[in-house]
Design brief:
The complex is a heterodimer of chains A (344) and B (500).
Chain A: H1 2-14, H2 19-25, H3 27-46, H4 53-78, H5 86-99, H6 116-141, H7 145-164, H8 174-181, E1 183-184, E2 187-188, H9 189-207, H10 209-219, H11 221-226, H12 231-257, H13 266-278, H14 290-309, H15 314-343
Antiparallel strand pairs in A: 1-2
Helix pairs in contact in A: 3-14, 3-15, 4-9, 4-12, 4-13, 4-14, 5-6, 5-7, 5-12, 5-13, 6-7, 6-12, 8-12, 9-10, 10-12, 13-14
Chain B: E1 7-18, E2 21-32, E3 36-40, H1 47-54, E4 62-67, E5 70-71, H2 77-82, E6 85-88, H3 100-104, H4 119-132, H5 148-160, E7 166-170, H6 178-193, E8 197-201, H7 205-211, E9 214-219, E10 222-228, H8 234-242, E11 256-258, E12 267-276, E13 280-288, E14 291-296, H9 303-310, E15 318-323, E16 326-328, H10 333-338, E17 341-344, H11 358-363, H12 367-370, H13 377-390, H14 407-419, E18 425-429, H15 437-452, E19 456-461, H16 464-470, E20 473-478, E21 481-487, E22 490-492, H17 493-499
Parallel strand pairs in B: 3-8, 3-9, 6-7, 7-8, 14-19, 14-20, 17-18, 18-19
Antiparallel strand pairs in B: 1-2, 1-4, 4-5, 9-10, 11-22, 12-13, 12-15, 15-16, 20-21
The chains are: A mainly alpha (344), B alpha/beta (500).
Chain lengths: 344, 500
């Protein structure tokens, strides 16, 4: 009884009561959801072709590659780090898997044909290796992730350039083609892969020891270290996870687009970061998760798709996307501030 | 009101509630020009809340606020500043990457006509101000490179020389060495004689008695006593603070104790010739099972670094560590933890996850022992519940965010996370700093229980009372070297201070 009383006392003292206060503390999760509902309602009213089942399928397909990349990025951002090399790693992995596949005779690339499974394994090894380099730079040398992955972005772009030398490759291993560009029971495989990877990411973050460590390192790195966690190992791991997710996204993306070439994934950097952050995962680490990323993906997907349906000036579209991202960042920082004030 | 003057600041019937709980209930408080007014009370008694009302931090309260005979209401810290009221908060708030001079002039750097900062003038004036305060540092050096005690003094100096006529100091001496405290007190007295009013909050009742003219005691949000400092005593104040008989405090305030004869229990940790450039010189000692080794020294004596070497956070330049006879070169804190070493740093913020529930804080260091790949939240909660019960952590709700607990209870959680699977060696930095008497006693009992269970414990502190109340054997660090060891002999605060 006494302890029960003191619980309410302590909770009351620090937490302003009432629905308004509850909403404020949940702002991080509510705001992105409201944004999504607003955007969806707007486009549904503005365009008759938007709110259809067919179009919903389109949106799902359109956000799949971003979604796969965003899984790994969510881990990185939860640790209060950033990975700017995801799009470049996606690109180089997609190119690598094509490089190790026999191309048609008219494709003028000095490639090294291999069996499909070997090509896939080599491509995965490549993205894991690039992730390891990121991890090494961040944890062993101590380069801030922002700068380290900026360099990696250039390195991966350079490897891409060397592999294709300005040419375009078309063939990828059959497994990749199947997962990237075919459907089963009317559902595109790429949507299923994205959904499974998002689910996997969520399970890892929520139910495994490693996931807990990710949140704790992001929440207070100093405290994690003084609790005897191997902070460097955890930070290194998330960089590798991010690179491998990007690589998988890149391989399926190449199959989805039907070609492998340079600069193919450039827009995915901003999109995947935006999806994570718009969804409400804190840039300061420790708060958010895959659930937020999924909402963020839909916000971006609905926005991109909807803007096409209302037939807006395509140049204005870029500006609008930028403004929406800015609004999300403002909410992100604002939500953090509200939380900190509540914690005082 | 020792000088019998009109008060410059009067608060009448102040009530302040957070949520549903009243932190202050009908408090009257008055401050006269040229007095030093000491405030004492346990954690959560309402001292800091009252001071934050005066400093404009809390604008939302009921009661009358009268400044210079006129009723006023501050809406922000800025209003308070404009009225000449400044406060040094308990937690250091300096800019470590700026120079000393910039920190001294933070917010009002001298500028020339076009608005450029006059660096030379700023450096000169900062240097002069600090020298008046007895601090001799290069004003252009980076503040973060200085020892914490010095940083705290510089922050205090900034406020003292800001021209404010009402200055509030919340626990200013906790990180200062005795000579630094002397300098601070001398400056406070000089400012008082020049007509400044000073409010001084401290857990160190000797300090309060030495420097204050008037002492006010708070308990549970009420003012319970106000007397002239010359007419009261430490036991009387403590009694007013906690409202219990004096016998409850004897353990904490023992000053003359006999250290027990050395134990022949096995050596758990052997430190040999630990050296860290500029910080530690050939520090050697051993810690035995079932024994509390106290390491005492002033701020900046190298304690902080020594503790971090023991937990693998810093690598020593020279010297070796052996745990239970095996040589160890820790590459990370995780290595040290796996060798059976537990560590609690001196700052709560550095060891706790305030945004996470209590049970996650308790389980973080033992997750690899209680779960493999998948988490077992029910087991975590059960373990946390057991610890909460044993350590009497309040409120006893393991799903509550840790940030909602009081400071003393947070400190207990920091201990609790190491206790479910007792380590071989527990390294505690400043285990009772900033705690009220009750919480201190709790910690002392916890440490004694652990010793009885056969743990080796190392307590590092700059507070003699902490070391005296806990240690079986004491080594004294001075400028990075061991200068004295006390074992199996009479020891007192005086002898400890003398050695350091």
């Amino acid at each position: 009884m006494t302890s029960g009383e003191s619980v309410t006392v302590a909770a009351d003292r620090k937490r302003p009561r009432g629905l308004a206060a509850m909403l404020r503390s949940q702002m991080r999760n509510i705001a992105p959801f409201l944004t999504l509902i607003c955007l969806f309602s707007f486009f549904a009213v503005a365009s008759p072709s938007f709110a259809t089942l067919d179009n919903f399928g389109n949106i799902l397909t359109q956000i799949s590659v971003t979604g796969i990349i965003a899984v790994g990025l969510t881990f990185v951002i939860l640790c209060a780090e950033i990975d700017l090399s995801v799009a470049a790693i996606a690109n180089v992995t997609g190119i690598a898997v094509a490089y190790f596949t026999l191309q048609e005779s008219y494709v003028n690339i000095a490639n090294v044909p291999m069996p499909g499974w070997a090509a896939i394994l080599l491509a995965l090894a490549l993205c894991a290796l690039l992730g390891l380099v990121n991890a090494f730079g961040l944890t062993v040398i101590g380069i801030p992730s922002f700068i380290m992955t900026l360099a990696m972005m250039q390195i991966a772009a350079g490897v891409s350039a060397l592999l294709v030398r300005g040419q375009i490759a078309y063939k990828v291993p059959p497994l990749v083609t199947t997962l990237g560009s075919t459907s089963i029971g009317g559902i595109p495989w790429i949507v299923i892969v994205a959904a499974l990877m998002l689910l996997g990411g969520h399970l890892v973050l929520t139910y495994t020891r490693f996931g807990r460590y990710v949140y704790m390192v992001g929440g207070n790195r100093e405290a994690a270290e003084y609790s005897g966690l191997n902070v460097k190992l955890i930070l290194g791991s998330v960089m590798v996870i991010s690179a491998v997710c990007a690589g998988i996204g890149g391989m399926l993306g190449v199959a989805h687009f039907g070609s492998a070439q340079q600069n193919e994934f450039d827009t995915y950097l901003l999109d995947s970061i935006a999806a994570v952050v718009v969804g409400g995962t804190s840039l300061f680490g420790g708060r958010g998760g895959i659930g937020n990323t999924i909402v963020g993906l839909f916000v971006l997907g609905v926005l991109n798709n909807g803007l096409d349906h209302v037939n807006i000036d395509s140049f204005l579209k870029i500006l609008i996307r930028g403004l929406i991202l800015l609004a999300a960042l403002i909410i992100n920082v604002y939500a953090q501030r509200l939380r900190e004030r509540a914690a005082e | 009101m020792s000088r019998g003057q009109q008060p410059i600041l009067e608060l009448h019937d102040i009530t302040k509630a957070f949520g549903g709980v009243e932190a202050l209930r009908g408090v009257d408080f008055a401050l006269t020009a040229g007095e030093i007014h000491g405030l004492v009370g346990e954690n959560g008694a309402g001292k800091s809340t009252l001071m934050k009302i005066i400093a404009g931090v809390h604008a939302d309260f009921s009661g009358r606020f009268v400044l210079d005979g006129r009723e006023t209401r501050f809406r922000s810290v800025r209003d308070a500043h404009a009225a000449g009221i400044a406060m040094v908060h308990q937690e250091l708030s300096v800019a470590p990457d700026l120079t000393v001079a910039e920190n001294v002039f933070l917010g009002n750097q001298p500028t020339n006509r076009v608005g450029l900062v006059q660096w030379r003038r700023m450096a000169r004036e900062a240097g002069e101000q600090l020298k008046r305060f007895g601090i001799d540092v290069d004003p252009m050096s980076r503040l973060g490179d200085l020892p914490i005690g010095l940083q705290q003094l510089i922050e205090i100096a900034r406020v003292l020389f800001s021209g404010a006529r009402i200055i509030i100091l919340d626990e200013p001496t906790s990180a200062l060495s005795p000579p630094e405290v002397e300098r601070l007190f001398a400056t406070l007295k000089r400012l008082r004689d020049e007509g400044t009013s000073i409010v001084f909050i401290s857990h160190f009742i000797e300090d309060i008695l030495r420097v204050s003219d008037t002492v006010t005691v708070f308990r549970n949000g009420r003012k319970v006593a106000e007397t002239a400092a010359s007419e009261t005593s430490k036991p009387a104040l403590i009694e007013a603070m906690i409202g219990k008989g004096r016998e409850a405090l004897e353990e904490t305030y023992t000053h003359d104790i006999m250290l027990p004869p050395p134990t022949d229990q096995p050596v758990v940790l052997n430190a040999n010739g630990l050296t860290l450039a500029g910080r530690l010189r050939e520090v050697s000692f051993e810690a035995r099972a079932g024994e509390v080794l106290g390491i005492y020294g002033f701020m900046g004596c190298g304690q902080l670094e020594l503790a971090r070497i023991l937990f693998g956070k810093i690598k020593p330049d020279l010297g070796t560590l052996a745990v239970a006879g095996n040589q160890k070169a820790f590459r990370s804190t995780a290595d040290a933890r796996r060798s059976g070493i537990a560590f609690v740093p001196e700052s709560r913020r550095d060891m706790l996850f305030l945004q996470e529930p209590v049970y996650k804080n308790v389980s973080i260091s033992i997750l690899d022992r209680i779960s493999s790949l998948l988490l077992k939240p029910s087991r975590e909660r059960a373990i946390a519940n057991r610890q909460v019960e044993q350590l009497r952590i309040r409120p006893a709700a393991v799903d509550l965010d840790l940030g909602m607990l009081s400071g003393g209870n947070q400190q207990k959680v920091a201990l609790a996370k190491w206790l479910s699977y007792p380590p071989r060696l527990l390294v505690l930095c400043e285990p009772t700093r900033g705690m009220d008497v009750g919480a201190k006693n709790d910690v002392i009992h916890i440490v004694r229980d652990l010793r009885a269970k056969g743990l080796a414990i190392i307590v590092l502190s700059t507070e003699p009372e902490t070391v005296l109340s806990l240690a079986d054997r004491v080594i004294v660090l001075k400028r990075g070297a061991v200068v004295r060891e006390f074992a199996n002999e009479q020891i007192s605060k005086d002898r400890l201070l003398e050695a350091a």
